[in-house]
Structures are given as structure tokens and as C-alpha cells.
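At this stage, I put together one protein's amino acid sequence and its C-alpha cells, which the following lines show:
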Amino acid sequence: MRCPYCSKINNKVIDSRLSKDGKVIRRRRQCNECGRRFTTYEKVELSLPMIIKKDGRREPFNREKIIAGIQKACQKRPISIEKIEEFVDSLEIYFQELGKKEVPTSEIGEMVINKLREWDEVAYVRFASVYRQFKDIGEFMKELEDIIKNKKQLNKDEK
């Protein structure tokens, strides 16, 4: 591990701790050259599928891109980063266990959009507007009308 300050590789681990869920090890390191301390995280490397984009390109599965997209949709909404990360963890496990070598972005997008619908209507609409590429206000309004209709139906069912 290179020191982020002096770029030397001569360092030592001075403390290791397991995360709460036991999936990550946090290591405190000290560079033997410059003496500065830094933290690294170690986790199991998963064999995840390649993602097939809408235009046919293929990219490695990137949890950070998924988290960033969900965070944008959830901006200023009452959804914690822990909740988002737990969901993305479950996606990674699902796709690892699925055993496919390639997965279309549409499969991931549908899973994300369904989870956002469950969590928060505003975050859902934000994500849907980008994911489904609404072309005009009419498509946006139709999605909102569907949400309102479903909410009214749920309220009737509860009574």
C-alpha cells in the first residue's frame, strides 16, 4: 500500500478493526518513511457481471455509480446513506449469486426504481425522470398521475 503523502510503500499496520457488519476491515497504517498515518479499508472482492449499457457498450459493475445516482434522486429527502449502501450491497450480492457474466442496465434500473418507489415518492420521480428519459412535461405528469392514483387506491384499501 502506497503512502498517500510520500508515495513510498514502506508502512506498517498499527490498528485493525472489523466494521459493524463484519464485511470490511479498517486498518490504520503509519508510513515508515514520512511517519504520517492513514486509513485503508479491506473487503472481499466480488466477481460481479459486466453491465450492458443501452448503446451496447460494456462496463464493469460500479457500485459507486449506482450509489451516486440514488443519492442524486434522494437529495434533501429523508433517506440515509446507510440505507442506500445496504440496498446496493444487496444488489451486489444478488448479481454475484445470479452468476451471469453480463447484465443489462435496465435490470439494475428497474430494481433501483422499485426500491425508490417503496422508499420515497419524490426520489422515485426524480430517478424515473432521468432513467425513463421523459421527453416532455406530459410524460412527467402521467407518472405523477399514476403515483396519485396508486396512493388513492392504497388509502381506499386501508379503509
The chain has a mean pLDDT of 88.
